[in-house]
What does this fold into?
Amino acid sequence: MARWKLTAAHYLSVPGTKYRHRETDSTTGEEAEQDFLVPRHLDPKDPPIQSRRLSNGIIYVHQGSGKVNGDFTFEGPPTPDMEPMDDEAREISESYADQWKHPIESLGGEDYGTAVVLRQLEVMMREVLAGRPGGAVSTGGVSTEDFNALKAQVEALINQNAQLQEQLTQKSERRA
It folds into this structure.
């Protein structure tokens, strides 16, 4: 009988967990109902869930396994936050362990850090910086005339901004 203890909150597919949607037609007054199967939120720290605790914690049983009174039965694979309670559960958990690699934690390890994408990026960066001392970028594409025109526009904007600031200061002093 495969049994796990939950160590963190989960949304699990527990058979029989439904959401019932009721809708009343505004013209006829007829009520329509529809049931939807939804996952159940199970948190070991929740007081209603704790009331179903066994001596060794909340137990979750994989569908098809034997169930003890108070156990929740779930469908689907176990997660890394489920602690296996017996050999069968350990075996099932180990079969899914390859899928449980955390995407952030695997960045620094051999899984992703030496990936082809990063190696290609390093090669491309070396090619871009090759021949440029210190990685300096040429400004040869900007003519002197264009640069001087841009400087003149910036100076004009600075002067206009100073005039507007002065006008605002004078208006606020008059009101005070």
The radius of gyration is 33 Å. Residues 144-175 form the longest helix (32 residues). The longest strand covers residues 18-24. Residues 3-100 form one domain.
